[in-house]
Amino acid sequence: MINPVLPQVLSELRAHPEGVSEYYLMKVLEHQHAFDDVGADGSLALYRKHFIIMNALYDLQNVLWEEESRVLSISPMQIVLHAPETNAEAVPANPDLSEYYLDWHNFENTTAEDVETLMHSVTGPRH
C-alpha cells in the first residue's frame, strides 16, 4: 500500500530544514484532513494517525537515502532531513521500528484493545 500522506510529509520536511516533531506533522495533516478516513475513534484513531506518519517517515528514510543520499533522522520530538555525516548514518537507528512501521498488517490488525493494553503497559492503569 502506498501511504497517502507521503507527499505532505515530504513537503513539510523540506519546508523545515531545522526539523519538526511528530506532533507538528500530526497537526498539519489533521488540518489538511489527511486522516478523515482513519476509521476509528479515541486511542485507536491516535494509534492509526501515529502509524501513518511513522510509515511515511520510514518509507521516506529509505527513498531519500537511495535517491538523494540524504538521511532522515526520526524521533518523536525531532525529525530532521540532512546530509549524512558518516556512512553509518545510512542505516536506520532502530531497524525493528522501521520493520514494524513499514508493515501495513500492523496497522490493519491492531485493535482498540491492543492499543489500550499497550498504553497500560507503558503508563499503568488509568483511574
Description:
By secondary structure, this protein is mainly α. It has one domain. The chain is 57% helix and 5% strand. It has six helices and two strands. The chain has a two-stranded antiparallel ribbon.
Q: What is the domain tally?
A: 1
What general outline do the C-alpha atoms trace? globular
Helix-strand pattern? HHHEEHHH
Largest sheet: 2 strands, antiparallel
Question: Helix/strand-derived class?
Answer: mainly alpha
**What is the CA-based Rg, rounded?**
15 Å
| Widest beta sheet: strand line-up | 1-2
Determine the number of helices (DSSP H or I, runs of at least 4 residues).
6
Strand content: under 5%
Q: Could you list the spans in which at least 5 consecutive residues all have pLDDT below 50?
A: none
Distance between the termini: 38 Å
Q: What's the total number of strands?
A: 2
Overall helicity: 55-70%
State mean pLDDT (0 to 100 scale): 90
Short description:
With 127 residues, the chain is mostly helical.
Strands, helices and their partners?
Blueprint: H1 6-15, H2 22-31, H3 42-68, E1 71-73, E2 80-82, H4 95-101, H5 104-109, H6 112-123
Antiparallel strand pairs: 1-2
Main features:
6 helices, DnaJ-related protein N-terminal domain-containing protein, 5% strand, mainly alpha, two-stranded antiparallel ribbon, globular, DnaJ-related_N, 127 residues
